[in-house]
From TrEMBL:
It is found in: Cell membrane. The lineage of its organism: Bacteria, Pseudomonadati, Pseudomonadota, Alphaproteobacteria, Rhodobacterales. PANTHER family: IRON(3+)-HYDROXAMATE IMPORT ATP-BINDING PROTEIN FHUC. GO terms for molecular function: ATP binding. This is ABC transporter ATP-binding protein. Gene3D superfamilies: P-loop containing nucleotide triphosphate hydrolases (3.40.50.300). It comes from Lutimaribacter marinistellae. It holds the Pfam family ABC_tran.
Length: 266
């Protein structure tokens, strides 16, 4: 277990002592975070602790008041928007699409950073779109409108759009929101499968500690805008962390099926 942050490694996405403030409230203070390459990282913590803000700051969607975010060893704010979008994709909470949009039309939007006035939708764009649809198992729904899909299928479609962007870094803000447990398991299994098969680095905000411990290689626990714990799930998910970060007395056991830490509230 590592308390607070570390910086100075060779990972592609790093934050160094970043601070973010909204009117009358500091959300993140001097936070340092290194996202491990080729791994799935889960960011957890109580409501309003800054989880989504951290993810948005990493993607340059929310400006930092102090510190810096580095992408590929350079300050992200010095990179052009198209250059960032070719390296990093983010799926925000509860994304919206125009009524009647089909799965294929949505996924094609992921190719926008690769296009220009001189380079419209190409054969490579078509291949990347189809590859993303196949990876997410949506071939039979690709011509269906999004509103006709189940919650799990719809989330897979949004992830397919992010995959079509063809970046090595994928940030997901609460991808299991509004999904029932079977669809949550389905979606997180897909994310781990994509990480395993394509080597993509994934960082995602999750609410469910047990699901985070099961599907992530690396966990980061936030409290009041600061990193309190980070490391492998079996190092982070302890009764001490749950009491400190969530004020929840509990017992932590090894999941009898998967062996990951599992929280049982007292």
């Amino acid at each position: 277990m590592v308390q607070n942050g570390q910086f100075g490694g060779t990972n592609r996405l790093q934050a160094k002592e970043i601070s973010v403030s909204y009117p009358r409230r500091a959300v993140i203070e001097a936070l340092t975070l290194d996202i491990p390459d080729g791994k799935v990282t889960a960011i957890v913590g109580p409501n309003a602790c800054g989880k989504s803000t951290v993810l948005r700051a990493l993607a340059r969607l929310t400006p930092v008041a102090a510190g810096r975010v580095d992408l590929d060893g350079q300050p992200i704010e010095k990179k052009g928007s198209r250059a960032v979008a070719r390296r990093l994709a983010i799926l925000p909470q509860s994304p919206l699409a125009p009524e009647g949009m089909t799965v294929r039309d949505l996924v094609r939007r992921g190719r926008t950073p690769h296009q220009s006035a001189l380079r419209q939708f190409s054969h490579e764009d078509a291949r990347a779109t189809q590859r993303a649809i196949q990876l997410t198992g949506l071939e039979s729904q690709e011509n269906s409108s999004l509103e006709t899909l189940s919650g799990g299928q719809r989330q897979r479609a949004w992830i397919a759009m992010a995959l079509a962007q063809d970046t090595d870094l994928l940030l997901l803000d609460e991808p299991t929101t509004y999904l029932d447990l079977p669809h949550q398991i389905e979606l997180l299994t897909l994310i781990r499968k994509l990480n395993h098969e394509t080597g993509r680095t994934v960082a995602m905000v999750l609410h469910d500690i047990n699901l985070a411990a099961r599907f992530a290689h690396h966990m980061v626990a936030l409290k009041k805008g600061r990193i309190r714990y980070q490391g492998a799930p079996d190092q982070v998910v302890t009764p001490e962390m749950m009491q400190d970060v969530f004020a929840l007395p509990c017992t932590v056991i090894a999941d009898p099926v998967h062996g990951h830490p599992h929280v049982i509230p007292s």
